Amino acid sequence: MPSPDPTSTAGTLEVLRERLGELDDLRHASSLAGWDEQTMMPPGGAAARGEVLATLGRLAHEKLTDPALTALLDRLGAAEDLGETDARMVAAVARDADRARRVPDRLIADIARQTTLAQVAWHEARAADDFALFRPALERHVELRGELAACFPEAAHPYDALLHNFEPDLTTERVRTVFAELKEGLVPLIREIAAAGPPPRLPGPFPVEQQRILAAEIARAQGFDDEHWRLDLAVHPFAMSLGSSDIRVTCRYDESGLMGPFAVMHEIGHGLYERQVDPALERTTVGTGVSLGIHESQSRLWENLVGRSEAFWRHWHPRMLELFGADALGGTDLAGFLRAVNAVHPSLIRVEADEATYSLHVILRFELEVALMEGTLAVADLETAWNEKTKELLGLDVPSAKVGVLQDIHWAYGELGYFPTYAIGNIVAAQLWQVIRRDLPGLDDDLARGETLALREWLREHIHRHGCLYTPGELLRGATGADLDARPFLEHLRAKYSALYGLTA
Amino acid sequence: MPSPDPTSTAGTLEVLRERLGELDDLRHASSLAGWDEQTMMPPGGAAARGEVLATLGRLAHEKLTDPALTALLDRLGAAEDLGETDARMVAAVARDADRARRVPDRLIADIARQTTLAQVAWHEARAADDFALFRPALERHVELRGELAACFPEAAHPYDALLHNFEPDLTTERVRTVFAELKEGLVPLIREIAAAGPPPRLPGPFPVEQQRILAAEIARAQGFDDEHWRLDLAVHPFAMSLGSSDIRVTCRYDESGLMGPFAVMHEIGHGLYERQVDPALERTTVGTGVSLGIHESQSRLWENLVGRSEAFWRHWHPRMLELFGADALGGTDLAGFLRAVNAVHPSLIRVEADEATYSLHVILRFELEVALMEGTLAVADLETAWNEKTKELLGLDVPSAKVGVLQDIHWAYGELGYFPTYAIGNIVAAQLWQVIRRDLPGLDDDLARGETLALREWLREHIHRHGCLYTPGELLRGATGADLDARPFLEHLRAKYSALYGLTA
């Protein structure tokens, strides 16, 4: 085979694609190692697996920051005869490569080492229910994140540099504004719902085997097939793509409630995003979801906007009755069942929070993280600040660190800037949903028949197929004509809960 | 952390170990990708997985042939203050690196490409039952193997260079001598057994679920535990190591016979070799089985020398009766059952062959491969030669290519030099077994109690722990005091079948 002519744009592009293919292969190998670690690996394999993941990560970083790659990207960035898709790909890769090059290897190694130490400290602190045991590790993490932020001196706010790891074109300022509006809408809404009295409870039990049957049927209705997907068990459910033709989704089930099937809808939502990326982007680094916030919008859309809607359950409620029996559903009819799966309870634990209160947990973490990075809050005062904010936002007293400041492992990973993406997902999902309902007037009828094809095609067309060719902001504007905006989410919640609980706006 | 001093032997060794760790991590990632491909991957993932495996293989090859690695190996090879284990490790890696460097990248790429083409041709030829459709692809493979052999001009025979990919210190001449002796002993023995009349048959059925229970129990008695092993289903059973603390074994079951449990014993035998390598060799390239022949000796030892012995079944036969019932075993007592699982039937298909006739299938392939490489046999005449040899060695007529020359996929992979390792495994296993029986006089009592610990410890001490620190020949001499020798295998077979069938020697 003749080698590509490296002096032409087409030849340079071919050389670039070879390098991107290699990077994507390393990512694939790494993702597989991670998937296996959480689903299949015998416990004895953990130490060796850690080394493998570190090596694959280091090789990928070396290849992304290779000056030869930079030279190719520079040459193509200046080329005038590049098609639009290729130009977007080159720009996206150049952004990633630039970010990777700006962080010194020494700092990456320091962060990796600190992450290992901090996890041990977090586990010890949590077991002892004593934040003080985690404090030194977190202080060092905050310090290292400060060094990381300093690698991007052009950022308007030190927290921007962290946020940009997950949301490349959002600013701290914008998130602050949007979250303020969100908080202002949510707090009174949740109070009104509480005043309407407690919703019905579903007594269960929901045997695990029946839940798996239900979850598998719903997954198929969302687009799951055996040719391109797997659904396995994992302690912490997640979705992972090994290329758009091999999507791995995981779940766990607990017979006391229906978290399992909702978690499957959520993860299939993530998986479908990866599954529907344009196959032309295979074996590049841009053939994947563009940001965590957009990714979360896809999972939340299926979990909440589809999966907690009346239309959806018109189809699936009879199947629930068949599988679990009327007693497990507490004798509820469809309306009662909907009130139950849309129950709102302010609670201490984020991962157990409902659709309405969830974002408040995120806002709490965002405000604390920003203050830590600004230096207006010391790690020493974090637990007190956490408890005060919990009272302010959720109206709850925190009895212990375990169910408060030590509940999530994310800070042990040093992952500041990550939490906001969860609430951004809720916000974006509602923005998309508003447009989808306008574009697909027959959507409720589809859902009531167990049909989702038109919805999936809409998502493919407006979000999924583009991979990373557009920034999250461009993608959102392209699909909805708007920037990040909390109002559609607040409107959706108010409308839904008003109908369910008879609130008066 | 201070960097190692690269001017000292200890410092150079540390740098070498980092590089070997990286190579081992790539092998681990690659093995995992292969394991997943055969056990878990949805079919849609195949194309992307092929790319990932190619990239990981290419990166490992680049790193093994890196001049900086050669320089480290040269410096350490000349160092006088290296301990014996490290010196052996350096020598073993240097041999691998030398072999890898001697084959030009162009030839590796040609072979890889031809392997893809030849597999397609083989599948088509097999479906059409027409060797002519595979002939051109195999001709090209033989040509490329000739080029490969030419990279090692010091070899006494062109086939040596191929054999050395799997058995680093065996020669074609030696294999020819040993196989000639083996053939001379096997052909009359098999004739005598046939004259003794047909053995009892086990009518079955053997439900798959019960076989899985039996196989899992036997596996545990061989050393399987949930902390370090997995046992999964695969179309073609295999064992794979992801480091000595993560061993993956696979199997398949067919309710018409007991191939499944015997295949599990075989694969656990492979797995145990990897499991018992000295942990000090972790994250090097020498912490794995040293050759395919030695590996196969471990699997055959458990499958045949343990797994078809009277002592073993004194423990497990009652459990068989419990699981499958007396009717499935055709009402045989222990003696009858042993005759049945030690039945000898010359047959056309290698993978279905019994302990006695199996090696003849291998000798047939070895003789044909050597003639192809010597140029004394043309691919055009291969089918005729195959059929003649089948008549000579097994006394059978070959009705069609599908059950003759096209039965195995190995030649489509271009893998000449690989088949002999299967018979070498049988031979080595019997050589080891002779010494083991002398060293462990209580072995039969152990097996009759379902106990294998002393046996496993013997194998760890004499074979497993050494990884690749000794060549196969050194290892065999160290454990048995002898070179490769067919006589113990022939003696074992004659003694066993004489007892079972009342042959007169």
Model description:
The structure is a homodimer of 505-residue chains. Chain A is mostly helical and 505 residues long. The first copy, chain A, has two domains: 1-102, no CATH class; 113-202 and 274-505, Neurolysin, domain 3, CATH 1.10.1370.30. The first copy, chain A, is built from 20 helices and three strands. Chain A has helices spanning 9-39, 46-64, 67-78, 84-102, 105-128, 135-150, 158-163, 172-195, 208-222, 259-275, 292-306, 310-328, 334-341, 358-374, 382-394, 420-439, 443-448, 453-462, 472-480, 487-501; strands at residues 229-233, 239-241, 247-251. Chain A has a three-stranded mixed sheet with strand order 1-3-2, sandwiched between helices. In chain A, strand 2 and strand 3 form a beta hairpin. In chain A, helix 1 packs across helix 3 (67-78). The model of chain A has no long low-confidence stretch (mean pLDDT 96). Chains A and B meet through helix 1 and helix 2 of A and helix 1 and helix 2 of B. Chains A, B: One of its GO terms (molecular function) is carboxypeptidase activity. Chains A, B: It comes from Paraconexibacter antarcticus. Chains A, B: It catalyses: Release of a C-terminal amino acid with broad specificity, except for -Pro. Chains A, B: Broad specificity carboxypetidase that releases amino acids sequentially from the C-terminus, including neutral, aromatic, polar and basic residues. Chains A, B: This is Metal-dependent carboxypeptidase.
